[in-house]
Amino acid sequence: MSYKNLFGLLLFTALFCTGFLINGNLGLYFNASGLLIVLGGTAAAALLSFKVEQLRIVYRVMKASYHHPLKSETEIINILIDLSIKSRLDGILSLQKEENETTILFLRRALGCLVDGYGTEQIRDILNTEMYFFKLRREELQRILRSIGDFFPAFGIIGSVVGLIAMLNGIGDTSILLKAVPIALTSTLYGLILANFFFLPFAANLRERTNHELLLQKIITEGVIAINSEVNPIILKTRLESFLTPSSRDLDLVSYRKIRERFNIELQEKNNLEPVC
């Protein structure tokens, strides 16, 4: 998570909590019975729906997504250009060192194919297959997070029903009503907060990270294939910069004068132009 995201998160979380404090104190919104119903019910439903190993993978991936930022597209392009220059000077086998040192697993996989002498189509097929199943695995993790996010409001409603039953049982007894009302109201509150403040944003964050990683993998695929084909590093740089937004590209636009000279375009005065019917 970037510092800007962290600062925004802390700021708006403070505003969110302030909304609770305006009409009372945070103690009014805490109810152990409602919290146990929501957390316990959701955890049980998650364990019935998914394997423990799947839940562990979700935890590890989410932890990595917030603690280990990805490289930018520009950084990946610069790495590939450096590798291209090195391969032209010292040969493809010189990339063996880079294969062992790089921390990007997909790039290591691609360089491994390159060093082992696979053909262009074989490299493309292997890396596209890797990308396809990577996307499938990430979509499965997103589905798990969204499912857990859907469990929370459902068990919040269950907690509310439990509170309503206790209220009906305590009609005429004020002490029972005062204990039952917080369960009915806070259970729904907990379910909505845990779903919409945590798990659904977790799923959205994982989707955005996956899309970014897929873009980096496409850049790596095109770069490694170009290196294997011994494409000129200047041409490779131009090709890979097509993946970047115009504002991120480090190149100057060709002037209109050079375009006219290259294609032998002559400017005509307005008074020499014939009207178009």
Characterization of the model:
The chain has helices at residues 3-22, 32-49, 52-67, 73-90, 96-101, 105-115, 120-169, 174-228, 233-240, 256-263. It is mainly alpha-helical. It has one domain (39-239). Helix 2 (32-49) packs across helix 8, helix 4 packs parallel to helix 8 and helix 7 (120-169) runs antiparallel to helix 8.
Order of helices and strands: HHHHHHHHHH
Q: Considering DSSP H and I runs of 4 or more, what fraction of the residues is helical?
A: over 70%
Q: How many helical elements?
A: 10
Query: How many DSSP E strands?
Result: 0
Helix and strand content put the structural class at: mainly alpha
For the CA atoms, what is the radius of gyration? 29 Å
Spatial gap, N to C terminus: 60 Å
Provide the domain count.
1
The coarse overall form would be elongated
Main features:
0% strand, 10 helices, mainly alpha, 277 residues
SSE map:
Layout: H1 3-22, H2 32-49, H3 52-67, H4 73-90, H5 96-101, H6 105-115, H7 120-169, H8 174-228, H9 233-240, H10 256-263
InterPro entries: MotA-like, MotA_ExbB_proton_chnl
Organism: Desulfofustis limnaeus
Subcellular location: Cell membrane; Membrane
What would you say about this model in short?
The chain has helices spanning 3-22, 32-49, 52-67, 73-90, 96-101, 105-115, 120-169, 174-228, 233-240, 256-263.
